[in-house]
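Hey, I was hoping to borrow your eyes for a little while. I've dropped the whole record in just underneath, so have a look:

——
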Amino acid sequence: MVTAAQDGWRLDAVVKGVECAELGPLSQTKSRQLCALGAVAVDGVRAEGTTRLRTGNVVTFASAHAALTHDLQVTVAWADDAILVLQKPPGLAVHKGPLVETSIADALARELPGAGLAHRLDREASGLLLVGRTVEALRHLGAAMERGDIDREYLAIAAGTLADDARTIDLSLRITDEPRGDQPKAVVDPAGQRSVSHVTVIERRVGATLIRVRLETGRTHQIRAHLAAIGHPLLGDPRYGDRNANDKAKATFGTHRTLLHGERLRFPSAHGGDPIAVTASHEPDFVRMFPRLRSRPSA
């Protein structure tokens, strides 16, 4: 917690000197780099190193994994010798592609040969990603996914006001890439794959609803397609969304991306024992629209 003596300090100055495994006390350069990667949160929200702190703010980051975060250039939220959980920022691609300069797959190939992603997030989405560090770990995660033993929960901001506090969207989806052949899109089709999303409303405001979505199945673009199908597409979504709603959110809140965030993961350990649960820090663009997402601990 930020003390009265640190009131007004920059975030990277408070992080400087923190003892981290393998790195030792953080230098000014390392503290700035970690903040630039989005690895440090203030009151539960990812923050820049230039953020000015106030007495009582709570600064958190996974200091045990700071060295691996630095090597990968992606925030490591949790890790053991078999599995990593990364927190992807918006705009970073997961896989390589013709218009992709850097990706998480590139970072894994460079720093952890043999590691692989157990699932994916769209480029403009943010949040948690599961990574198996070995072939055996990837098999373990793949089998757990098939059994439904991996719980994935997402925060999302949908256009308009969802009337029901909770609902299940059970609409089969089919993937098409017509007419171009290189841009897959999920469309509702009774002949498609069964796709189920469980939606809970967290908060409503004029023109937008903050929701949590738990996936029962994990199809390509499932959340985006399901919300569009019920008339409440994700704000900022250029493919499935409402252009007028997107333009208004951009003008009012500076929204520049699809507002989807992988918030929580719960998965079986590769070594047995209790399941592992990891929660991501929040993204600033979500908090601009719904300030109550920010943690406000007592001083």
The chain has a mean pLDDT of 93. The first strand starts at residue 19 and ends at 20. The chain is about 20% helix and 25% strand. The two ends are 8 Å apart (CA to CA).
